[in-house]
Amino acid sequence: MVIKTLFRLWNFLLLGLVVSVWVVACMSPLPTPPSPQTTSSSANCRLVEHALGTTEICGQPERIAVLSPHILDVVLALGAQPAAYAETIALSVQRFDRPAEQIPYLGDRISTQPLNLGDRKSPSLEKLTLLKPDLILSEDWLVGDRYSLLSKIAPTVLFTDEKNGLQHWRNDIDGIAKSLGRKGAVEPVKTDYLRQLETARQTLAPVVAKLPKVLILSVNSEMSDVAIAADSTVGYLLEEIGFQLVFPQPAAAGEARWQSTSPEILPSLDSDIALVIGWDSAELYNPEATLRERWNRTPVFREMPAAKANRIFFVDYQLWGSITRGPITDQLILEKLPDMLLPLLSSS
Fold first, then answer.
1. Helix (H, G, I), strand (E, B) or coil at 31
2. CB-CB neighbours of 272 under 10 Å
3. Segment 102-154, tens digit of pLDDT
4. Could you give the CA distance from residue 348 to residue 330 in angstroms, rounded to a whole number?
């Protein structure tokens, strides 16, 4: 009888112990795994190095403020769209509601209606603050002095496309793509460029053989600023195709080949072809039209060898000079050059 009683008491105590352990286990908090959203967000953040430091950017930005034509060219080539934009000069529009008409050369590729931020060198900080962008993109030489202010509004990355004396979009496209979360779009852009360049080489080879020497000038509408502009977007492309750029004296590798000059020396420069890049600090659209009229009324310019042979072309600085200088710019120039230069074979 005593044994049975002890056995029952033992079972009772054992059952109580099991119940106690179970209750404590239920009350103890289990480790909580990180939510998928937190993990994904953290993993999708990256550090982007640029001309003024390193900036952390998370996800794929949607509200992108683009503060220069060069950056806009690269952004569009990578498949992104601007929520706001700053042009070469301040335009009297609140929003680019007709971008194909309002933004030269690039506007027909814009599907948004970007907010107008004004001049690329002094974009509106008030409008940027109201926009609350996810990302601000620009160039260091334009807004480097405003970097701290821009960084308080949104993650800001400022790039330079100059490396070893060469200014080209291949020097900053990787950083811009990383900022946008579009690194996979870079190689197709570079591949298309090389393919277009090789096509131009083959197409224009007869012109290179017959008329190899090209003089490139940068001239404002008032004709008060004349410079030999071998270091220009079109100059780089022409050299890659095989043309020889005319310059008064040999320049060492890496030295700038952009030199102000007197109009009086131009007739002495031996050139087969001349490209005159027209610009006007107050006029965004077709400044070369006014320049062409004044040029034809000035005897010294008409005495240039290329002008006397009627092998002179007037083009716009915004595209052909060094304003946009991106993948889309190169594509447009490479498409235009055969139309301009091939007819010279039959007229020379």
1. coil
2. 20
3. 999 999 999 999 999 999 999 999 999 999 999 999 999 999 999 999 999 99
4. 27
